[in-house]
Structure formats: structure tokens, C-alpha cells
Write a structure and sequence with these properties.
heterodimer, A: 130 residues, alpha+beta, 6-stranded antiparallel β-sheet, 9 strands, B: 353 residues, 6-stranded mixed β-sheet, 6-stranded antiparallel barrel
Chain lengths: 130, 353
């Protein structure tokens, strides 16, 4: 399992999802806190490539032995790629939530949405208040 | 909000960093290191579960056997002192009020270890049917109960070999216990009943002997892999023993509450049956999901740590319950295929080289 971390170069959504924004595209995943709360992941139900995703709405599900959770999109856009490694080996998310454990890559439809997301420090503070 | 009850081992769970959840009115460890690691430890070596939340009801007196014979489905005359028996407490309709293990402590004294959620209602049922000469008492608070399970459990505890469903008194590093060859994992092992005040010390000794602390999460996946029903999920007051595949626990040649109804269901054949299944696609069925074809309902569903696929049990029409039948389950809006299989879903030989 990875150690608790919220990298400074990512943006965070309050539903415990992260985005790595690169120009008009973004890579999405779930935070260390999310994977720790769920426990070892055993299933990722991914979206279809080409499917639209909307900020604040579910684009897939992750499951541990005991729990199922919707994955909420931090940004809007269209699915470019699904991480097949996570579909085949969901535990990759627990081992490396911000690296090999990314979930999908999207083309952004509204780059201004990023302003509504939290930076690492603000997300940490949000977790501490819970 | 009602306060959650705590077992004598609560401080140990906190110290081990367990994730605690409410379960049947108790605050219980669902996992320590992780469900999958704990599950595999029990299948390959040995794990220890705190199951002190379970109820212990004692029935004592010259008519104790008579009372239990009239209320429990299995035939107590098939066992004797030093033996234990899996049995059901049934209502008039043959519905299952609880499933439990009865231990014959002596010909006039029996201990019933019952599901935590049913301790109060079982006690009320027994008391309502009480006979003079059969005293029913709730002893739950007096005991700690540890399940030590796995192929190396007996060796690690230094116990003598014994047959399943027997019990004996024993000492584990000087602590007196009642050691019963029973469990809920499909593995060899024991359930150790000690005085509540000895519980922490017993836990420490068992862990020091190499048993891995394991939570209710692993307990659930272990029992599901071997198709042991969970009361409240797979069986309950509105499900009968025949449909649930528990006809073998019902001595229909004796009279007990619900026997007439069960005889009728057996004769006519049940309308539906509890069937184990394995997912044929990447998906995990969960309790309460609809089986859409044929029509039915999932009563337990999880990921199998040994088989690395979704598994479960559910009720389907009796005509569609044969192993090999393909069924369709509505997994949150997606139709997913599963296949009905023989019990148990996981067999040890499957993975042995």
C-alpha cells in the first residue's frame, strides 16, 4: 500500500477524486484517502471510451470486497482512454493511486471548471475538517 | 442513537488499528490489515476472530432436552455429552428464526451459541415456550468467544486431534477454555469459549502462537466461499430450511415447531431454492440485487479472494436451480451473467498443486 500523500501538482474534488490537467486533457483517479477508505480494490467498472463525463457526476464504480463506490468526475469532457491495467488488476490503485493507478484520461470541454477544484493543501484541510 | 456494545477485546482491536463498524448492535472489527490478506491467512495457515458478540444461551434441568427437542429442528438424540450440532430454531411456518450450534455440556445442560442479532429474540422465544424443569438463561456477558480457524490452527494451539462437532475443556497457555471443533470458514479449527475476563489474555496468547487477527469482512467471504448461509441474508423467518438447502438439519421424523410445514414443503417440493453462483463476467453481485432471468434475488454476494471472481448465493425458481444453469443478475443497471455451481463454491483441492 502507498503512504498517505496528496501531490501538489494535482487538483482535487471533494468526492475524493484527483485530476492531472495537461493543456486540454486531464488524467483522473481517486485519492489516497478514497482507496484507503474502500480497502483493497477488486473491481473497476469503467466508462466507454468516447463517452461524455460531467463534473460532479459518476463515470464509473470502484469496488472493494465489502464496498462499492461511484467515481465522481472532477471535470467535464469526453473519455479518451481507460486504464486497462486497473480493469485487470484493480489493486494497482491501492499501490499507486496517482501513478499507475490512474483510471481514465479525458479531453476537457470546459477548462475553466478547474478553478472550482481544490489544491493539495486545501484538500488536506478539507479532509482534516471531516 | 443507541450505544454500540463492545466485546471484552475492544481495546485489543483499537491497539491493532482495526477498522471498527457497527454490526448487530456491536462495535466490531471488519478488518485489521485487509480482508484479502486475512482471508488468505485462514485458508493457508491460521486466523483468529473475535466473535464474542455472539450470544450464549443456556438451557438446564431435567426437561432441558425435551424443551430443545420441541423447538430445534435437528435431533439432539443423535449427539451426546462432548458433542455439538448445527441446528435451526424454526417458527410454525418452518421459517428460520435462527441457525445455531447447540453444545451438550451434560445430559441436562445445553449451551446454544446464537447469532448476535438474534440473542434477544431467541431468548424470548425459548422463554415463551419454557417448561418447568428447563431453565433458560442468557450467559452471553460471561464469555469471550474466539474462533481460531485454518489448516494450522490446531497445531498452533497445541491441541490434541479431535473430530468435527466435538468439544472438550482445554488449557491454552494456562487459560481454561471450552474448545469446540466448530467454525464458519470451511477450514479446520476451533472456537474457544473462555471467561470474559480471560478474553484479552487468551487473544494475546493465540496471536503470539501465530494466528492472524481477522475481522468480520474475512469471516463473511470465507463462509460465502463454502456456502454457509448467513442469517439475515440467506435465511430468515420468511425462508424455510428446505428451500435454503438445510433440509439435512431437520429431523422431520420428530415433532418440533414448524415440522408439519416443513414436511409439506418437502413433499410438494419448494417453489424456489438457494443456489450458489459464480460470475461469468467481471462484476460483483451484492445482497438485494435482482436476478432477472430466471426471476430471483441475490441474498449474498462478494468477491472471492481465493477464486478472484464475483461469487454469491441467491434464490431462484426450483426448476432453474440446477448446477450449470446460467442466470442473469442486474448489477446496478447492467445485466451480468453468472452460473449456478455445486456447493461449496471453493474447494481446497482446486488450488492445491
Amino acid at each position: 500500500m502507498a503512504a498517505e500523500d496528496y501531490p501538489a501538482d494535482l487538483k482535487y474534488h471533494r468526492e475524493h477524486d484527483w485530476a492531472r490537467i495537461e493543456n486540454s486533457e486531464a488524467t483522473l483517479g481517486i485519492t489516497w484517502y478514497a482507496q484507503d477508505s474502500l480497502g483493497e480494490l477488486v473491481h473497476f467498472e469503467p466508462p466507454e471510451e468516447g463517452q461524455p463525463v460531467s463534473m460532479d457526476e459518476s463515470y464509473g464504480e470502484v469496488e472493494s470486497v465489502k464496498a462499492v463506490s461511484d467515481v465522481i468526475s472532477p471535470l467535464s469532457g469526453e473519455v479518451l482512454e481507460v486504464n486497462r491495467k486497473v480493469v485487470d488488476e484493480p489493486e494497482t490503485v491501492n499501490a499507486d493511486p496517482y501513478g499507475e493507478g490512474w483510471l481514465i484520461r479525458i479531453r476537457l470541454s470546459d477548462q475553466s471548471e478547474a478553478e472550482k477544484l481544490l489544491d493539495g493543501e486545501a484538500y488536506r484541510a478539507f479532509l482534516a475538517e471531516r | 442513537m443507541q450505544t454500540l456494545l463492545r466485546t471484552p477485546l475492544h481495546d485489543r482491536h483499537i491497539a491493532l488499528g482495526a477498522r471498527l463498524v457497527p454490526f448487530a448492535g456491536w462495535e466490531m472489527p471488519v478488518q485489521y490489515e485487509g480482508v484479502i490478506a486475512e482471508h488468505r491467512a485462514v485458508r493457508s495457515d491460521c486466523g483468529v476472530f473475535d466473535v464474542s458478540h455472539m450470544g450464549e444461551l443456556q438451557v438446564e434441568g431435567p426437561r432441558a432436552r425435551e424443551l430443545l427437542q420441541s423447538l430445534l429442528s435437528n435431533d439432539l438424540d443423535r449427539i451426546g455429552p462432548g458433542k455439538a450440532q448445527y441446528t435451526l430454531l424454526t417458527n410454525e411456518r418452518g421459517g428460520i428464526l435462527d441457525d445455531l450450534i447447540v453444545y451438550e455440556l451434560s445430559p441436562a445442560r445445553f449451551l446454544l451459541i446464537v447469532n448476535a442479532a438474534n440473542t434477544v429474540s431467541d431468548l424470548a422465544w425459548l422463554t415463551d415456550h419454557q417448561l418447568p424443569g428447563a431453565d433458560v438463561s442468557d450467559r452471553s456477558a460471561e464469555y469471550a468467544l474466539l474462533a481460531v480457524q485454518g489448516p494450522r490452527a490446531i497445531e498452533r494451539l497445541g491441541l490434541a486431534p479431535a473430530r468435527p462437532f466435538t468439544w472438550d475443556t482445554a488449557e491454552i497457555d494456562g487459560i481454561e477454555v471450552l474448545a469446540a471443533r466448530t467454525g464458519y470458514t470451511g477450514e479446520d479449527g476451533v472456537e474457544l469459549l473462555s471467561q470474559a475476563e480471560d478474553g484479552e489474555q487468551l487473544w494475546d496468547r493465540v496471536v503470539a502462537r501465530g494466528a492472524k487477527p481477522s475481522g468480520l469482512g474475512a469471516r463473511d467471504t470465507l463462509r460465502l466461499e463454502v456456502c454457509f448461509p448467513l442469517h439475515g441474508n440467506d435465511i430468515g423467518p420468511d425462508t424455510d430450511a428446505i428451500s435454503a438447502g438445510l433440509g439435512w438439519t431437520c429431523a422431520l421424523d420428530k415433532d418440533f415447531t414448524g415440522a408439519a410445514a416443513l414436511r409439506r414443503i418437502k413433499e410438494e417440493g419448494p417453489a424456489r431454492r438457494l443456489a450458489p453462483f459464480v460470475m461469468q463476467e467481471k462484476a460483483i453481485a451484492r445482497q438485494g440485487m435482482a436476478i432477472t432471468d430466471p426471476p430471483g434475488e441475490v441474498t449474498s454476494g462478494s468477491h472471492s479472494p481465493m477464486l478472484d471472481v464475483g461469487i454469491g448465493m441467491g434464490y431462484v425458481p426450483a426448476a432453474d436451480a440446477a448446477p450449470g444453469t446460467t442466470i442473469t443478475i442486474d448489477v446496478r443497471g447492467r445485466e451480468r451473467a453468472a452460473r449456478i455451481v455445486d456447493k461449496p463454491i471453493y474447494k481446497r483441492e482446486q488450488l492445491d498443486p
